[in-house]
Write a structure and sequence with these properties.
7 strands; 225 residues; alpha/beta; two-stranded antiparallel ribbon; 7 helices
Length: 225
């Protein structure tokens, strides 16, 4: 059974693709969705599948899915933090992202609709830092889905981010399912043991998950994983 945040959840969105296709018939030049969810909730997969399904029903590049991981502070920037050890140990916490850069890029995405292509950064795990220009959003793109942990978070510099979206979604996933996926991901990506993965979750990812769950009440729609 899914364990929900204690706050009242928004209405359930059961047919997101159908709703988006219908919305595009009367939406402004670019409709922007913010999709939040816990680490391991499946939000990256969901965003990509929804965008693909919308494109299948409309035209290529009508929808694009993006992530917020490209807005991590770089390792060089983290070394400028007052507590460098804590900054690296808690990398992935809300305050280890460049929210000012994210806000600026969201503004650019809105303004560039129908005019020029836009670039968007990614995150290269092999490098351990963001990579500029990893993705391109064509000028013709009508729907942009941005997924990330803290798009509904109302602290640590994230307070203004949600206003850049026309709709805000929260993907609800059982906590135990999300954390198990996360452990497996850490083991695969970083080549670490389960014990090391679980330690990382206990000291960092689990704390982040609780913050994300608490932000669900700020969504316009709730989706079930």
């Amino acid at each position: 059974m899914t364990t929900h945040p204690t706050h009242t959840l928004p209405p359930l969105l059961e047919q997101p693709v159908q709703q988006l296709v219908a919305r595009l018939e009367s939406a402004p030049p670019r409709w922007m969705i913010g999709l939040a969810g816990m680490p391991g909730s499946g939000k990256t997969t969901l965003a990509a599948r929804v965008a693909e399904a919308v494109n299948d029903r409309t035209a290529a590049n009508t929808a694009v899915a993006l992530g917020m991981d490209g807005f991590h502070f770089t390792r060089a920037e983290l070394r400028q933090f007052p507590n460098v050890a804590e900054a690296f140990a808690r990398r992935g916490a809300p305050w280890t992202f460049d929210t000012a850069a994210l806000q600026q890029r969201l503004q650019q995405l809105r303004a560039s609709a129908g005019r020029v292509d836009s670039s968007w950064p990614g995150f290269e795990h092999a490098v351990g830092d963001p990579v500029e220009g990893a993705y391109t959003v064509p000028a013709s793109t009508r729907l942009v889905i941005v997924e990330g942990l803290y798009l509904l978070h109302h602290a640590d510099g994230w307070e203004a981010i949600s206003q850049f979206f026309d709709e805000r979604w929260y993907l609800d996933t059982p906590l135990e399912t999300a954390l198990e996926r996360l452990a497996l991901r850490h083991m695969q990506v970083w080549g670490i043991t389960r014990a090391a993965a679980e330690h990382r979750i206990a000291t960092s990812d689990g704390l982040n998950a609780e913050l994300v769950r608490g932000s669900a009440r700020f969504a316009d729609w709730w989706l079930v994983s």
